[in-house]
Structures are given as C-alpha cells and as structure tokens.
Amino acid sequence: MIRVLLVDDQALLRSGFRALLDLEDDIEVVAEAADGQEGLALAREHLPDVALIDIQMPVVDGIEATRRIAADPALTKVHVVILTNYGLDEYVFDALRAGAAGFLVKDILPEDFLHAVRVAARGDALLAPSITRKLINRYVTQPLHTDAATELEGLTGREREAVALVAQGLSNGQIADRMVISPLTAKTHINRAMAKLHARDRAQLVILGYESGLVTPRNR
Fold it and tell me: How much is the pTM?
C-alpha cells in the first residue's frame, strides 16, 4: 500500500486529489494539511511514502517544507512531489535543489497523476515532460558548478556512466540495456552513486549530472 500525504492550501484541490487516489486499491491517503508546517508535522506522524506538496502556501511554503523533510533523518523514505500551476519557475527549481523527487502540474491527466504517485513511491525521479524540457533548456545557458564536478570525482567509471544515463531520463532497464549489464547491476551502480554523492533520490542525480557537465542538453 502506497501511503500519501496531501499538502495544499486549497481544500477543493485536496478533495479532488483525495477522491482520485481513494479509488485505487494500492494507494491510501493518510493525512491532509493546508500549509507546510502542518504538513511537516503530519509527515513525521504518518511517515508517508509520497508527500504531494504545493509550492505557494501560508505559514511554511512548499520549498521550505521540502527542505525540512529532506533534512530530517526520520523522513528519508518520504518522497516529495511538488504540485505547481506554472511549470518550471524559480520556485520549482529551488524545490528540486531542496530535495524534491519531482514535479507535477496541477492540470495533469488523472491516469498520469496516478502513475506519477506510483513512480515516486518507487524512489524514481519524477519530472513531467514539459518541465524536463524547460529544465534542460535552462542548462544551455547555466554556468557549470565546479563543486558538483568535484563531487563526481569519487565515482567509478561505471557509476559515472550510470549517473549520466539517469540524468538523461532512462529507467533501470534501459540503463542496463545501454551498459550491457543486468538490471540488478545497473541498480547497484545507481545506488552506490547515490550513496557516495549523498543524493536523496534520482532527481538529485539529474541535477548533479547537469550541474557538473557530465550531461549536457546536446547529449539527449
């Protein structure tokens, strides 16, 4: 059972998301919150698999709530998915840096929304296609971060290759095919890279891959 926490200051939207999720046999909404502070408290109380968090909320906004969840050792298994009306903007980008596993625009189709919750629960990076394209375009003009490049120096060649493929949006199975290894070995390379880089999830590998220059938009 996938346990979900809804955090949004709009009660009507929360009700709509809950109604959709409650129809699924493998998903359970364990709590709802109207602001980030309440959401953080409920995350600590219920330990959900996925926290769906709006960016702009009173008291504590979604970015700060995400940052606090990512920094709490007791919440390492909580995967934050940011809900946004606007696609990629500065707020969304900051939330990804803060530890969000991905983003969804609120006008997403119901079937895509449910798929996204399941993807996030597995710990996979979740970026809507429109947001992924904008994220990549942003890096066309962004300077490289030398700190990110330095962080990658501790990886083996195969781990670097796996990180690059994760950053290109490939699944474990696709990475295994590309590297000509088993899916289990691919997952091992990715997990070791995440541990060495202190990455919370695959979304963090995506950011590191681009910021370090390991992957560039023209690689895609």
Answer: 0.70
